[in-house]
Design brief:
The protein is an alpha/beta fold. Helices cover about 40% and strands about 15% of the residues. α2 packs antiparallel against α15 and α8 packs across α11.
Length: about 450
């Protein structure tokens, strides 16, 4: 009887291990960084962040009857509904299941260019012209699937783009525009957020249960009573509903999350939550590329975020300028003993004179914070014209173009294995997920 019990006990243990191992690998594994440079991953996310600003502003002004929209009859029919509702373009009318061709969106923006640039400086107009032209050249394989801005007074604005050439689904958040956005920014109390399920067993108590993050950013995605009262669903859940159909049945597609400023902070939290989710339809790793993001959580949150990176579930390129004040606030979070807030991911600092530095948060220390804190940044720079301040997307664009040649020679996956950029402890435990294909050789059998 003892042998029988022992046998069954061993069998149950083996079945449990097999089950948990299978569950951990049920999601699709992709290789978004294969043969793709840092520049080619970063640049498309910048113009996605720019377009979400311009399109949301244009539609908002039209809703408030400040402008009269110009468009062809077909485009007017497709886009005009934005004046009254959020639209899911997939399969609507004559559109494919991919959504609205971005070429149609670009045509719409160009026909309304005076409205897009209303009140803008000459530099901003030149920047908008350049970006729209650059997107137009690659628009044939880009589709706008959903864009939700109708409730921007009470919730975040975002769009979902499908890139059929590079096999990417891009979730892009807009930065701060409304009063509610700014109210979100100043809610610096730290809030408990459930630790993503796939890393809970690897975290020590109490981080195996929850981590502390910026309350305002958290509420915008996961705990917004206003949007739930209107829609009956949180933004996080709506985003998953928007993204899931685009990934279902699409082999080899990867998920990118991006945004500027507030949008960068939301993209950071969202990518962390999605990467560590046990939902089998989410491909891993999830890639976050953020511009000018403020701090999003404390040291415990950073440890959990790093665990997602170590496990190959998440890649994060955080792009900042050393003189951008927004990227260094809020330095303190209220309401927790561990109140110092931290940055996460690989930081690409775009400096003056065509220079840059790259460092993962595992090598950050107090000296790093002192060097990066923008003591030379003047508040007047931020109150002056948007293009004149170091937080503007145009400034980021200029700096990115300055070091384009260097960044074209780098790959994000390689940076995660470089001890000059990440800590030795990180590289010793880093496990990039391997894509399994029909051509992948089987592991040798030990005899």
């Amino acid at each position: 009887m003892r042998i029988t019990k022992a046998f069954y006990s061993l069998l149950l243990q083996l079945l449990f291990v097999a089950k948990t191992t299978t569950a951990a690998n049920e999601f699709p594994i992709v290789d978004p960084g294969k043969d793709v440079s840092v520049f080619d991953e970063a640049y498309p996310m910048l113009y996605a962040s720019k377009l979400v600003y311009d399109f949301a502003d244009l539609v908002k002004d039209a809703r408030e009857k400040k402008i009269q929209l110009n468009a062809t009859a077909a485009t007017q029919k497709m886009i005009g509904n934005f004046l009254n509702e959020s639209i899911d373009f997939r399969g609507k009318g004559d559109l494919s299941n991919d959504g609205l061709p971005v070429s149609s969106l670009i045509d719409f923006l160009q026909k309304n260019f005076d409205a897009v640039t209303r009140g803008k400086s000459k530099k901003e107009i030149a920047f908008a012209t350049k970006l729209i032209g650059n997107v137009d050249r690659v628009a044939d394989h880009l589709y706008l699937a959903t864009f939700r801005s109708i409730k921007q007074r009470i919730s975040c604005v975002y769009g979902v783009v499908k890139d059929t050439k590079n096999k990417r689904i891009i979730l892009v958040f807009r930065g701060s525009e409304t009063g509610n956005d700014w109210y979100t920014n100043i809610q610096i109390i730290l809030k408990e957020m459930h630790t993503p399920k796939l890393i809970r067993e690897k975290m020590e108590k109490p981080l195996n249960e929850s981590v502390s993050v910026h309350q305002g950013f958290y509420n915008y995605l996961f705990n917004n009573s206003q949007i739930e009262e209107v829609d009956g669903i949180q933004r996080y859940e709506q985003i998953r509903k928007d993204v899931k159909p685009l990934l279902k049945g699409e082999e080899g597609y990867s998920l990118y999350v991006t945004g500027h400023s507030l949008g960068g902070a939301l993209a950071t939290l969202m990518s962390f939550k999605l990467a560590g989710s046990n939902k089998e339809w989410i491909p891993r790793p999830v890639t976050a590329v953020t511009y000018a993001s403020p701090y999003t959580g404390n040291d415990g949150y950073r440890k959990a975020f790093g665990q997602c990176e170590k496990d190959g579930l998440l890649r994060h390129l955080r792009i900042a300028l050393p003189e951008d004040l927004i990227t260094e606030i809020p330095a303190l979070g209220v309401g927790r003993l561990n109140f110092l807030t931290k940055h996460v991911g690989i930081n690409l600092q775009l400096k003056k004179h065509k220079s840059y530095s790259i460092q993962h948060h595992t090598l950050s220390n107090f000296g790093t914070a002192l060097r990066q804190f923008p003591v030379k940044a003047s508040l007047l720079q931020f109150l002056y014209h948007p293009v004149g301040n170091p937080h503007s997307l145009q400034r980021y664009y200029n700096r990115l173009i300055d070091v384009r040649d260097d960044l074209t020679e780098l790959q994000l996956d390689d940076l995660y294995q470089d001890n000059a950029i990440v800590s030795k402890e990180f590289t010793q435990t880093y496990a990039k997920l391997e894509v399994i294909t029909d051509d992948t050789p089987e592991a040798p059998i030990d005899e």
